UniProtKB/TrEMBL annotation, chain A:
Residues in SUF system FeS cluster assembly SufBD N-terminal domain copies: 27-157
Family: Belongs to the iron-sulfur cluster assembly SufBD family.
Residues annotated as domain SUF system FeS cluster assembly SufBD core: 172-395
BP GO annotations: iron-sulfur cluster assembly
Pfam families: SUFBD_core, SufBD_N
Protein name listed in UniProt: FeS cluster assembly protein SufD
Database matches in SUPFAM superfamilies: Stabilizer of iron transporter SufD (SSF101960)
UniProtKB/TrEMBL annotation, chain B:
NCBIfam families assigned: sufC
Transmembrane segments: none
Pfam families in the record: ABC_tran (PF00005)
Residue ranges of domain ABC transporter in the record: 2-248
Name listed for the protein in its UniProt record: Putative ATP-dependent transporter SufC
Length: 425, 251
């Protein structure tokens, strides 16, 4: 079927401006992905899945200009013992990065020519699976055109986390990175990500977690104001495996974080959570799709948004329970705290269930600061600003508490406090 | 200490007068009790004094040691030494009880130009005070009042009072929802705080709380006014005969 003309034109224009990287082992995956993009076209504002978020600037040929933002603070996770890997505007920075050797883990780069056999089974594979029942053309575009990324294979539990840190240097940089993580049976990894990656960033993370494997993913986006980012996370979980992902987002004119999780082995656990804070010209979109396709799996989606001065928050979250996925325990909550009347929260929670012995719950709310709680705090002598901040942090707590590691939790809370303090008065 | 003169208060949102000329003076170191039937304005008086939204003072004044209370924000009243033990303590999910207490103590110290309490010092003090109120470590860690029983919530109010060391304490129906043992525990907590420089205004329906917290003066409030003032014997009279006799007597 022919695509609508505007969509066809926009897709043709973008594809004409990109070159398929000439890499060996990933070539066929890239060609397949390109075919997917051509078949569906890139997102347009008419697409149902992009009803609340305008994809135009993510699709257009040139990245809109974004000033480089100097956060003027110690970067997050800086004091952690970790293997740090740096990308500047999407380009690997060997000098700023640690040695890629880490016991129990092999770390390679997508841009290297070497034949990474194991990665072939994952690269573009989970992304392709995630294209049904809903198309995600920007992810296919990423698979086809990613210029670099990390290929991380975890065979034994390493002693420290891997930390990918992004830096933004050029005002018109347009970065496409694609990471693959394969956690082998029984192994466990913590993956950290932070930093403004580029003026426009298209990132894909595919995580294949074998039986009994665990992946903890903690990401901090921000505080650059003008960035545009479309990120995708695809996770496939084997039996008794665990995937926990938490994202903290501060600022950003346009951020779309998609997360697609497939629970394919019995007794697997997937938690995906997000805390975001937006002020003014801000749009943050969490789009989540969790598929239960095995027995006795647990999934949680916990998304909290603090919005002020006309900021917009979007949540599209779905739990799909396939036939036979009995004893599914699915939970989904999306909430916004609107600090004024100008901000808005748009939510589309969905459940689709084809098994009869499951427990699934979902809820979505929008509200202001609780007057009762505020008065209670003030009556104890806590000034109104401080009391409001305390209640704001409390609102985000359910999401932040999804982070298992207490030191990381504290690090995130300190960033939230910083954000609130800077916006006082 | 606390002086209320001719206080008139109406609801902000509707044309309903609740307090119709309250006059009350609580001297330093004294315990005053206010009793009265439902709807007489007892709780409104406590809310207006602590600065809750939703009320409009149409006439009169209230001062604490000569300072105009009605002009101050709730947090300023607290820093000035006023404390309200809530009839229904508010649950605050996501804020740990300990964090809440420490934030409050240090905010008041800061407002008064005093040095903040160090984490170690605070911990020592709070643990000692919690112990006498039978508040265990778990209750201190949990979010403020979340999942607390009625008795635990009231004990937590008294713990806050003990930590903040206010000079004017208002107890709004602190006995509601308490069993006999809990009432005794709460009362002991309050009695331990009685001192020359600290005054109490105890609002209650029933005389039984006053068996434990012995008042110096008892006021009867009805239809937005103090209608009768006397000694502790007045509370016994209410217990025996109800409010009807007293109201009939002054009518």
């Amino acid at each position: 079927m022919a695509l609508p003309k505007l969509k066809q034109d926009a897709t043709d224009a973008r594809l004409a401006a990109l070159d398929l990287p000439a890499s060996g082992w990933s070539r066929s995956a890239r060609e397949d992905a390109l075919a997917r993009v051509k078949a569906t076209g890139l997102p347009s504002r008419r697409d149902e899945y992009w009803k609340y978020t305008q994809p135009d600037t993510l699709v257009q040929v040139d990245a809109p200009v974004a000033e480089v933002f100097d956060a003027n603070e110690t970067p997050i996770f800086n004091d952690f013992d970790r293997v740090k890997i740096v990308f500047v505007d999407g380009v690997f920075d060997a000098d700023a990065s640690d040695d890629l050797a880490l016991e129990g883990v092999s770390i390679d780069r997508l841009a290297d020519a070497g034949d990474i056999h194991w990665a072939k089974d994952v690269y573009g594979v989970l992304e392709a699976r995630g294209q049904t029942p809903v198309e995600r053309p920007l992810a296919a575009l990423n698979t086809a055109f990613a210029t670099d990324g990390l290929l991380i294979r975890v065979t034994k539990t390493p002693s420290k986390p891997i930390h990918i840190t992004y830096k933004h240097a050029a005002t018109n940089s347009d970065a496409i990175l694609h990471h693959v993580v394969k956690v082998e049976a029984g192994a466990e990894l913590t993956l950290l990500e932070n930093g403004p990656a580029a003026a426009r960033f298209n990132k894909c993370l595919e995580a294949d977690i074998a039986d009994g494997g665990k992946l903890h993913h903690i990401r901090a986006q921000g505080r650059d104001h003008q960035r545009r980012a479309a990120t995708h996370m695809f996770a496939r979980l084997g039996a008794e495996s665990v995937f926990k992902s938490f994202t903290f987002t501060a600022n950003g004119v346009l951020t779309r974080n998609e997360c697609v999780i497939e629970l394919t082995g019995d007794d697997a656990v997937a938690h995906v959570a997000g805390a975001c804070m937006g002020d003014g010209d801000f749009l943050h979109d969490d789009t989540v799709f969790v598929t239960h396709d095995a027995l006795n799996c647990e999934s949680r989606q916990v998304f909290k948004k603090v919005l002020r001065n006309g900021a917009t928050g979007v949540f599209q979250g779905k739990i799909l329970v396939k036939p036979g996925a009995q004893k599914t325990d699915g939970y989904q909550i999306s909430q916004s705290l609107l600090l004024d009347d100008d901000s808005q929260f748009l939510a589309k929670p969905e459940l689709e269930i084809y098994a009869d012995d499951v427990a699934c719950s979902h809820g979505s709310t929008s509200g202001a600061i609780d007057d009762e709680g505020l008065f209670y705090l003030r009556s104890r002598g806590v000034p109104v600003d401080e009391a409001t901040d305390l209640l704001t942090i409390a609102f985000l707590a359910e999401a932040v508490q999804e982070i298992e590691d207490e030191a990381i939790q504290e690090e995130i809370v300190s960033r939230i406090e910083g954000w609130l303090t800077r916006r006082r008065g | 200490m606390l002086e209320i003169k001719n206080l008139h208060v109406k609801l902000e949102e509707e044309d309903k007068q609740i307090l119709k000329g309250v006059d009350l003076t609580v001297e330093a170191g004294k315990v005053h009790a206010i009793m009265g039937p439902n709807g007489s304005g007892k709780s409104t008086l406590s809310y207006v004094l602590s600065g809750r939204d939703g009320y409009e003072v149409t006439d009169g004044e209230a001062t604490l040691d000569g300072e105009d209370l009605l002009d101050l924000d709730p947090e300023e009243r607290a820093a000035a030494g006023l404390f309200l033990a809530f009839q229904y303590p508010v649950e605050i999910p996501g804020v740990g009880n300990m964090t809440f207490l420490r934030t409050a103590v240090n905010a008041q110290r800061k407002a008064r130009g005093e040095e903040e309490m160090s984490a170690a010092e605070f911990l020592k003090v709070v643990r000692a005070k919690a112990k006498t109120l039978k508040i265990d470590a778990d209750m201190l860690k949990r979010p403020v009042n979340v999942g607390f029983s009625g008795g635990e919530k009231k004990r937590n109010e008294i713990l806050q009072m003990a930590m903040l060391e206010p000079k004017m304490c208002i107890l709004d129906e602190t006995d509601s929802g308490l069993d006999v043992d809990a009432m005794k525990l709460v009362s002991e907590g309050v009695n331990a705080l009685r001192s020359e420089g600290r005054s109490f205004l105890v609002i209650t329906h029933y005389q039984r709380l006053l068996d434990h917290i012995k008042p110096d003066v008892v006021h009867i409030m009805a239809a937005g006014r103090i209608v009768k003032t006397g000694g502790p014997e007045l509370a016994l009279e209410v217990e025996q005969n109800g409010y009807a006799d007293i109201l009939a007597e002054i009518a």
